Design the sequence.
């Protein structure tokens, strides 16, 4: 074997060192010229997520409550740059509370789908009957009207004594008022052409039979009022949300604002409720909007809605669990409805896939993320934004609104203030499903006549509305309205 001399070994080591130094110098030179690409993770904590989409230059809003003068930091985000400015949120509007001894005007407001009358008219009857009962408890100077937005002034509502007329003064007795409203799903091109020229043809033809003045007919939307009617939004609602069953119950509060803006307080409610006697003397204090409780919230969707609020440019205060019943000023209701529609449109377009919108998933995603409660999600975004920007005051009235219609304990009524009782999905009495299937009859009425529980009140109102004629119900309202005056 050939021996390696020390001189050869040293030469080899020296050559290796030189090669190493050349490689090192070359690599250091290229580091400065190479762009380091850091892959962006799109799954950080929801509260820190930055939207990478450019939806009309998304506005990020963060609200600070550290001092009396609240500030908003607004970041306008585009694909190429970010601009941060600071603005001051105006303080809450001054509160001018309505005194209980004043001539208080109130309205109970519902949307009634005329094309589903077989299912919903029994609920209208019992709501009407409970409204009549409540009138006996209200102070003499108060007035509480029952406002119904629907597509036709049918014979049934005429028999109930309803009128198609806006309240003119504080002296008029409490009355049922019908306002003709074209539902979103019926705003087809032929109906809305030429400024809704043919939208109310059926209602006008029916009015001729009753010799009503077509010129004085109150219809919604009011096309000449840009505050309450946006033709582009109306078209978008038709294109995106016409199949969503609850869209009209919110849109009527926005587009119908001019029919109820004269009231001190409005109660926006579903149909399947009973107005309880306590409502007769109760008004919200401190210029506050009360909501019922909503059972839609989970940790997952609360984080998701917080992120969505930031994407939309909405403020978010962390409020959750607001129900769809509202009781407060007419203007507060209008503001919430307006922003709820905005939230619902955003959610439907950007946060739900087609199969979800088409109900192909059923309740598979409930309660984490479910299209069926789109209204509650949109309202969640709206209320958080309006509270966060000091436009309204809101309290969740868990023990005031949407109370139990099945509770059979006298203490439930005696120890609380129950403004309305809401029918939930249950087989317990009172069950709206059992009622509509005819499972309750006149013998039940006698059983509950002198019972003072919430369950008994719901049973009695529903059964009395079933066995009274429409004319008898109308006379009851006239008599009770006069008695309370």
Sequence:
């Amino acid at each position: 074997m050939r021996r390696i001399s020390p001189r050869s070994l040293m030469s080899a080591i020296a050559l290796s060192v030189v090669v190493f130094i050349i490689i090192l110098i070359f690599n250091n030179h290229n580091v400065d010229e190479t762009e380091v690409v850091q892959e962006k993770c799109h799954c950080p904590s929801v509260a820190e997520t930055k939207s990478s989409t450019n939806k009309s230059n998304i506005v990020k809003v963060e609200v600070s409550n550290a001092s009396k003068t609240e500030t908003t930091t607004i970041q306008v985000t585009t694909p190429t740059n970010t601009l941060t400015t600071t603005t001051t949120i105006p303080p809450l509007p001054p509160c001018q509370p309505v005194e209980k001894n004043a001539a208080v005007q109130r309205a109970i407001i519902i949307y009634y789908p005329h094309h589903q009358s077989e299912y919903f008219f029994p609920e209208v009857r019992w709501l009407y009957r409970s409204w009549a009962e409540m009138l006996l408890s209200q102070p003499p100077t108060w007035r509480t009207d029952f406002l119904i937005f629907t597509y036709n002034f049918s014979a049934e509502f005429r028999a109930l004594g309803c009128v198609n007329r806006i309240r003119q003064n504080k002296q008029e007795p409490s009355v049922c008022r019908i306002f003709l409203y074209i539902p979103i799903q019926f705003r087809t091109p032929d109906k809305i052409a030429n400024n809704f020229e043919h939208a109310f043809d059926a209602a006008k033809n029916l009015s001729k039979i009753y010799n009503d003045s077509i010129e004085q007919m109150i219809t919604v939307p009011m096309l000449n009022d840009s505050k309450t009617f946006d033709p582009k939004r109306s078209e978008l609602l038709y294109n995106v949300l016409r199949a969503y069953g609850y869209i009209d119950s919110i849109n009527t509060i926005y587009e119908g604002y001019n029919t109820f803006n004269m009231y001190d307080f409005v109660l926006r409610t579903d149909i399947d409720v009973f107005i309880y006697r306590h409502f007769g003397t109760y008004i919200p204090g401190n210029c506050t909007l009360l909501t019922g409780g909503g059972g839609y919230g989970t940790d997952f969707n609360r984080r998701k809605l917080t992120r969505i609020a930031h994407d939309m440019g909405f403020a978010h205060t962390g409020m959750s669990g607001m129900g769809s019943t509202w009781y407060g000023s007419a203007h507060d209701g209008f503001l919430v409805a307006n922003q709820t529609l905005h939230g619902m449109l955003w959610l439907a377009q950007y946060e739900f896939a087609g199969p979800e919108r088409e109900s192909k998933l059923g309740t598979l995603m409930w309660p984490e993320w479910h299209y069926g409660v789109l209204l509650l999600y949109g309202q969640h975004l709206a209320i958080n934004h309006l509270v966060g920007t000091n436009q309204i005051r809101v309290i969740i009235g868990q023990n005031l609104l949407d109370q139990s219609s099945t509770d059979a304990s006298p203490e439930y009524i005696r120890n609380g203030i129950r403004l309305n009782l809401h029918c939930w999905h249950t087989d317990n009495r009172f069950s709206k499903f059992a009622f509509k299937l005819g499972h309750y009859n006149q013998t039940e009425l006698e059983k509950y006549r002198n019972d003072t529980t919430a369950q008994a009140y719901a049973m009695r109102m529903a059964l009395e509305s079933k066995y009274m004629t429409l004319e008898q119900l109308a006379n009851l309202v006239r008599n009770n309205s006069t008695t309370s005056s």
Observations:
- Residues 6-31 form the longest helix (26 residues).
- The chain has 16 helices and 14 strands.
- The radius of gyration is 30 Å.
- The chain has a mean pLDDT of 85.
